[in-house]
Amino acid sequence: MLDVYTKIVYNHHRKGVIRMNPRGELLKTLKKLGFELQENGTRHDKYYSKELRYTVTVSRSSKFDEDDARMILQEIRRETRKQGK
Fold first, then answer.
1. Residue 13 and which of 4, 74, 78, 85 are 20 to 30 A apart at CA?
2. Residues 9-43: pLDDT tens digits?
């Protein structure tokens, strides 16, 4: 499973996929990785992966940029490595 995460994160860095709408692209990627919306908040949304048993918090701020998206993807990558998947 780590290969899938690594490939997606690598492609985002290499191809610059996150540039146009970083939050929208991140949400598409999270759905591809199996994350589902757990909770809608006024400032943040929480996405949960049943496979990883891991929750990611995504800001709804207009200042959300590609660096924020990249950090979240790296956080997911670290978690998959930690779990050995």
1. 85
2. 556 555 555 456 889 889 999 999 999 999 999 99
Instruction: Count how many domains the chain has.
Output: 1
CA dihedral over 31, 62, 65, 58, signed as positive or negative: negative
pLDDT in tens, 42-76: 999 999 999 989 999 999 998 998 889 999 999 99
Token pair in block for residue 21: 């709408």
- Between 58 and 3, the more confident residue is 58
Domain extent, residue 28, equals: 2-83
Number of H helices, E strands in the chain: 3, 3
State the first-to-last Cα distance of the chain, in angstroms, to the nearest integer. Answer: 5
Alpha carbon distances (Å) from 56 to 4, 40, 41:
18, 12, 13
